[in-house]
Amino acid sequence: MLPSNDPRRESWVDIPEGSDFPIQNLPFGILSKKGGEKKVGVAIGEYALDLSALYDFGFLDLKTFSHHHFENTHMNDLLNLGHEKIRQLRERVSYLLSTESDDLKSQTKRELFLVKIDELDMHMPVKVGDYTDFYSSEDHARNVGTMFRDPDNALLPNWKHIPVGYHGRSSSIVMSGEAIHRPAGQQKPQDAEVPVYGPSKLLDFELEMAFVTYPGKPMGDRISTTEAKDYIFGMCIFNDWSARDMQTWEYVPLGPFLSKNFASSISPWLVTLDALEPFKVKGPQQDPKVLPYLEYTGDHHYDIKLDVIIKPDGGEETIVSQSNYKHMYWNMVQQLAHHTVNGCNMNGGDMLASGTISGPDPSSYGSMLELSWRGTKPLKLKDSSERKFIQDGDTVIMRGYCEKDGVRIGFGEVSTKVLPSK
Ligand code: CA
User: Fold this and answer.
1) 271-272/131-134 β-pairing
2) For a 10 Å CB count at each end of the chain, is N or C smaller?
3) How confident is the model at residue 203, as a pLDDT?
4) The pLDDT value given to residue 3
5) Which of 140, 300, 338, 339 is catalytic?
6) What does the alpha-carbon distance between residue 199 and residue 183 come to, in Å, rounded to a whole number?
7) Are 281 and 299 in contact (CB under 8 A)?
8) What 3-state DSSP class applies to 152?
9) How many CB atoms lie under 10 A from the CB of residue 101?
10) Three-state DSSP class for 33?
11) What's residue 1's pLDDT?
12) Averaged in consecutive runs of 10 residues, what is the pLDDT profile of the chain (422 residues)?
């Protein structure tokens, strides 16, 4: 039997050319047929495999799983089973969908278990208990430091020693497709004596990726960089909406607050680390040398191509940034080791975001703040309108995928329309 991410494995389900979801991917999500119950599904080509139905008909291990693992509002109960059992589940699903198995191939079984993705509603895959946002791209930190502080000392002294992060707001993480309202809040225009209140004029996206955890260790224990991969389930694309004018005024001394907590948007399918394994690449040389608890062996960066697109109301899409997750300075195993080194516990379904993913080239910057260089270099869209920041009616779309040896592992997209302030 071939392993689940072997490029030679084929599915009896037709996979269209360029699909994000070949049999080597099998990402997990929460779906419902119009108005129906929420269930755990796995994407394959243009379809989702209904794991709840698969369980009910006895195709999954009845000793390990229960019905509520697959028919549930979120995946947290399933993730709480831990890495080994979920890995076995994915291997089982991969086998059932492969040409090596006839179990689900008949027309009646296909109709029972497979649903067209475009006929489904997708929902938040996990109930996010805690959400952390890192700041782990050196190019992003350097760009922001250059703009707002000192070009000669753009990075703060701690930046290359600590994967800097802050605790964000989990209640306002929303699914792709859900429109958001422009936030309003305090801003202090540069020439004004006192702050004003009103809709943010500098609404921005942040191109990020987030990982979702399995339950960690008891409080007081730490997860090492070697152990970290067994506590990470999978990843999605993460748009960390930011109101730059509110941020500039409020962030001293405790960091971002209302400029960030009004919304973050995610893509619906969680792509497992197992599926991403073939796309690991070497990270940057870290200099100065990091403390021993942040050292790691092997490769823990991933070659994930990322596009950001702006689509004006009724208009066509313009790609405004092309970045790559491999540009990160700090990787996921370092972030998780750092997060728990003080004994902080992790729960199943926690979400840890990377921070804005900018590359070295200006075309790969992961926010409008950087792309338009604080509004001094407007971007031209295909309809010849200009953007310094995001306007009402704009839809921001982020897409990501890996590709190697003829296998494409995609994340789908996170797409969000911005509505006027309420
Ligand atoms: Ca962020």
Assistant:
1) unpaired
2) C
3) 98
4) 82
5) 140
6) 6
7) yes
8) helix
9) 16
10) strand
11) 77
12) 88 97 98 95 98 96 95 98 97 96 92 96 98 98 94 95 98 98 96 96 98 98 98 98 97 95 98 97 97 98 98 97 98 98 98 98 98 97 97 98 96 98 96
Distance 157 CA to ligand 1 centre (A): 20
Q: What's the pLDDT score for residue 4?
A: 85
Q: What are phi and psi of 302, to 5 degrees?
A: -130, 140
Output the CA 222–ligand 1 centroid distance in Å: 25
The whole-number pLDDT of residue 5 equals 86
Spell out the CATH class of 131-419. alpha beta
Give the Cα separation of 244 and 118 in Å (integer).
35
Q: Exposed (0-12), middle (13-18) or buried (19+): which is 87, by Cβ within 10 Å?
A: middle
**Helix or strand holding residue 86 (H, E):** helix 83-97
Ligand 1 centre to CA of 141 (Å) is 11
Measured between alpha carbons, how far is residue 352 from residues 135, 141, 173, 298 in Å? 11, 18, 12, 21
Residue of 307, 137, 342, 337 lying closest to 220 (CA atoms)? 342
Q: How far apart are CA 390 and CA 418, in angstroms?
A: 8
What's the Cα-to-Cα distance from 166 to each of 32, 222, 255, 275, 419, rounded to whole Å?
Answer: 33, 18, 8, 28, 27
User: Distance between CA atoms of 371 and 321, rounded to whole angstroms?
Assistant: 8
The Cα-based distances of 229 to 82, 132, 282 in angstroms read 12, 17, 16
Nearest by Cα to 241 from 327, 183, 184: 183
Look up the CATH number of domain 28-123: 2.30.30.230
Task: Return the pLDDT at 300.
Answer: 98
Q: Is 363 exposed, middle or buried (0-12, 13-18, 19+ CB in 10 A)?
A: exposed
**Residue whose entry in the numeric block shows the structure tokens 């490029």:** 7
Of 411, 410, 404, the closest CA to residue 6 belongs to: 404
Centre of ligand 1 to C-alpha 261, Å, is 10
Ligand 1: distance of its center to the CA of 240 in Å? 5
What's the CA gap between 326 and 104, in Å, rounded? 38
327 is catalytic: no
322 phi and psi angles, rounded to 5 deg: -130, 105
Q: How many C-beta neighbours within 10 Å does residue 395 have? A: 17
In the chain, CATH 2.30.30.230 sits at: 28-123
**Three-state secondary-structure class, residue 271:** strand
